[in-house]
Design brief:
The protein has about 525 residues and is mainly alpha-helical. The protein contains 22 helices and 5 strands. Strand 4, helix 5 (about 100-115) and strand 5 form a beta-alpha-beta unit. Helix 4 runs parallel beside helix 5 (about 100-115), helix 13 packs across helix 18 and helix 17 packs antiparallel against helix 18 (about 410-420).
Length: about 525
Amino acid sequence: MHWFRKGLRLHDNPALVACLEQSPKQVFPVYVLDGNCYQLLRCTPLRANFLVECLQDLDSNLRNLGSRLYVLEGDPTVVLPEKWKEWNISHMSYEEDETGEPYAVARDETIVAKAQAANIRLLSECSETLYPLQEYAAKAAKGKGGGGTVPATMTGFQKLFGSMPTMHKCLPSPTKEDFPAMKDDQDQKYLPPQKPTDLPWPRGIPKSQVDSLWGPQDCKNLTPIVHGGETLALKALKESLKDANWVATFDKPKTSCTSLRPSTTALSPYLSWGCLSPRQVWFALDEAIARASKAATKPPVSLHGQMLWRDFNHLMAYDANKESPGCWNKIEGNKYCRDVPWDDDPKLLEAWKTGQTGYPWIDAAMRQLAQEGWIHHLGRHAVACFLTRGDLWQSWEEGAKHFEAQLLDADYALNGFNWMWLSCSGFFYQYFRCYSPIAFQKKNDPSGKYIRKFVPELKKLPDKYIYEPWEAPTIILEKAGIKLGKDYPRPIVDDHSVISKENMSRMKEAYDAHKAREAQAATAPKKQRR
């Protein structure tokens, strides 16, 4: 049995290859629809639809090889042992989850114990980062006389990456000859779901308590920015890297976040769900840059740099959870996160989530997230800053939960890292640098095309007022068919320039308090510190 989890692909899948190399009489490729896993616990119809498309494509690709995908449903620690017995399984392979996501850790510990009791040989591999996270940690530990720790800066991580051995080449996709001949199987019970509503709800949680409550009506007319599956992922990779000079000169800060089409590769959802191998992306970038006639940009802003950021984020989650299991995506117990005393105002949070803040640029980005499951990274920066240290002073934990539900590329490690960074709770500490919800994009999109698309109630406003409708004279608003407070909300905070400075003072106080706690802990007697 090969248990597909995040690695929803056939190419460069070492765990699948390890299973096929056992040469058994039959291999059962399995996916378990588990409502409690990270991918489904908080999940909008868009994310659910993406998973459905991934599973359908995976099944189709397996059938082309004379196999198929068996889709089970329920708690993997229960349903997998049942199938081991029913199908006479001797080996099971799977992609290892290294970051320490709490539910995955507990699930896998139970699976390992049950496999040992059932005399099932487990084969696990790591291929969701360029190098296994344990290898990064081991290499870092050898530094500084053997007492080195993993680097907590991108500069430090780049040095660590540069010291790693030659990266393994990608494994080819299996062929028909690699799969043992299957017995005739007419059982329709284990087919992939046909639509998002076929997916299970989290176990033991009433629907009223699920963060992203939705039903069949919400699954109609979905408009994702990308569709799921390995087949489309490989096509998108080839297409996005066709222009070698564009690849070579890519500079992430210079890409446009107000373009109505992605100005980046938009490959992140495929990497997040494992439809693409990170090593395949890395080597594809190498090949494209080798064809280019222009000089290549360098990490961290280059496309290679984006892959390094991804591994760095995963390593930080791995290291934090190793010291304090389950702390990532949380404030408490997270050694990389400052304990900032955020406010808790459900009305402010809901206005932000639904794109009803009264700031058109912020609302447009939040509505794009809801409609397409994606926002450009600078848009993510702006809305995250606005929610936390910039304007609303709400906890980044709440923002991270919302992104986890909404983003097609939601990733346990990257999501927590980025929210700590953008709220200045960890990694990035220049809290005096604050995104303006008004001026930030005026220079890039002076006519407000992006706002007019995602906030259509403002589409008739003149360019002069598209970012600040409250500044428009009454006659202009009437002509545009807008009554503030009715057709479009008034600003949720009166003056960004004032509130952002007040919040900078609050952040300074939080930083000073954090330093005082650290100094006190450092001078406390060892027994007291324990």
